[in-house]
Amino acid sequence: MSKKVDYSQGIYDAKVLGKPKILVLGLQHMFAMFGATVLVPLLTGLSVSTTLLCAGLGTLLFHLLTKGKVPAFLGSSFAFLGGFAIVAPKLMDANGEQTIANTEMLPYACAGVVFSGLLYLLVSFLISTFGVKKIMRFFPPVVTGPIIIAIGLILAPSAISNCQSNWLIAIVALGVVVACNIWGRGMVKILPILLGVAASYIVAVVTNNVDFTAIAEAPWIGFPVHKDSMGLFAIDGSPLFISALFTIVPIAIATMMEHIGDIAAISATTGKNYIHNPGLHRTLLGDGLATTMAGLLGGPANTTYGENTGVLALTKIYDPLVIRIAAVFAILLSFCPKFEAAINTIPAAIIGGISFVLYGMISAIGVRNVVENKVDFTNSRNLIIAAVILVSALGFNSVGGITIAAGGVSINLSGLAIAAILGILLNAILPGNDYEFHGDEEEDKNTSESVSNQAS
């Protein structure tokens, strides 16, 4: 006879639910991250199977390094899409659509991901050595917020370009995502991207816009990391490699701030302070090494997923074991080439419809970053920093960045790289830098409020 379980206070040991329920809960978390995670390889040209493998392995590595305490899932990061679009833009097919993976440049983009993860490791070490407040003074919201805003705006033209291939299908995808976000309840609200892709895919099938040939030809079982399909990382000291580093690595500055926000959100949801225990340095280490591993395997950068935090809040099942089961499901799915072939049949118009709102949301997250941190734009110092970042990111991106000749090697700096460098330098040089990172104090407050709300 099964015991009656009290969900009101949250479940921290899922074993009391029994193995069948634990497996179902793990599967639910896998579906929560699925739509967003597979969208990244579709937008960049990376392998879907490799991406799922990296998400699963990265999550397990993160749990290992954080002592299995943090119920976080690591999926594909959207923040790096801007870097991929600059370093390895998709190529035009016979119909004039950007659908062909840039296999020549993708390895350099993956190398950028590798070194982005190493930047996480450096910051993790500095935090453990000098303390979080001293380090975070160099990455205040007045710098990271505008960078995130610029990433979304840089990507916006590609969304319109994909939508133009079939506006009907694109509008269906966009409409379903918006409807699920605004009026959805329960899992419908948590899975808007997956549902948007499913609904618009049905429309695409009905209107004869899907070719199933590749699905029939693909085998059921295969190895998810294969060099011929997309290429692994390339580290060769060439100008292309160096330019890729300067374009992609600075994005990690913004994603580290996102990481801190995600860990704070998970802490508030579960009522446990993960910034204190196991510590922000450990969560950054886990995220960073997972990202480096993904780049080495030819996958996109990893990041903690808000979708899965939403599932935690919905189910009140806070046991990290459930997340690890979801990671295993993702790994198993990565060994099915037929599944990857099915994902690759998704028309460009669907990608356009989904990314239409997605890219805007990236910019909106940047706006939320500065609003929630109460950045004072009546202060000329803050206004100048934000202005320089936005104009540098968008302006230099429109002209292909700038090229610097050093030691016989030409290095191309993208708009994002220039914006990040100038933003950090201006923040360090201009007087009036009064930003203080209050993660510990805020987290204590959030944790106590969460516990209080659960008790009431």
TrEMBL record:
<feature type="transmembrane region" description="Helical">
    <location>
        <begin position="166"/>
        <end position="183"/>
    </location>
</feature>
<feature type="transmembrane region" description="Helical">
    <location>
        <begin position="190"/>
        <end position="210"/>
    </location>
</feature>
<dbReference type="InterPro" id="IPR006043">
    <property type="entry name" value="NCS2"/>
</dbReference>
<dbReference type="InterPro" id="IPR006042">
    <property type="entry name" value="Xan_ur_permease"/>
</dbReference>
<feature type="transmembrane region" description="Helical">
    <location>
        <begin position="411"/>
        <end position="430"/>
    </location>
</feature>
<feature type="transmembrane region" description="Helical">
    <location>
        <begin position="321"/>
        <end position="340"/>
    </location>
</feature>
<feature type="transmembrane region" description="Helical">
    <location>
        <begin position="383"/>
        <end position="405"/>
    </location>
</feature>
<dbReference type="GO" id="GO:0005886">
    <property type="term" value="C:plasma membrane"/>
</dbReference>
<protein>
    <submittedName>
        <fullName>Uracil permease</fullName>
    </submittedName>
</protein>
<feature type="transmembrane region" description="Helical">
    <location>
        <begin position="21"/>
        <end position="40"/>
    </location>
</feature>
<feature type="transmembrane region" description="Helical">
    <location>
        <begin position="46"/>
        <end position="65"/>
    </location>
</feature>
<feature type="transmembrane region" description="Helical">
    <location>
        <begin position="230"/>
        <end position="253"/>
    </location>
</feature>
<keyword id="KW-1133">Transmembrane helix</keyword>
<comment type="similarity">
    <text>Belongs to the nucleobase:cation symporter-2 (NCS2) (TC 2.A.40) family.</text>
</comment>
<dbReference type="Pfam" id="PF00860">
    <property type="entry name" value="Xan_ur_permease"/>
</dbReference>
<feature type="transmembrane region" description="Helical">
    <location>
        <begin position="346"/>
        <end position="371"/>
    </location>
</feature>
<feature type="transmembrane region" description="Helical">
    <location>
        <begin position="72"/>
        <end position="91"/>
    </location>
</feature>
<keyword id="KW-0813">Transport</keyword>
<feature type="transmembrane region" description="Helical">
    <location>
        <begin position="106"/>
        <end position="126"/>
    </location>
</feature>
<feature type="transmembrane region" description="Helical">
    <location>
        <begin position="138"/>
        <end position="160"/>
    </location>
</feature>
<dbReference type="GO" id="GO:0042907">
    <property type="term" value="F:xanthine transmembrane transporter activity"/>
</dbReference>
<keyword id="KW-0472">Membrane</keyword>
<keyword id="KW-0812">Transmembrane</keyword>
<keyword id="KW-1003">Cell membrane</keyword>
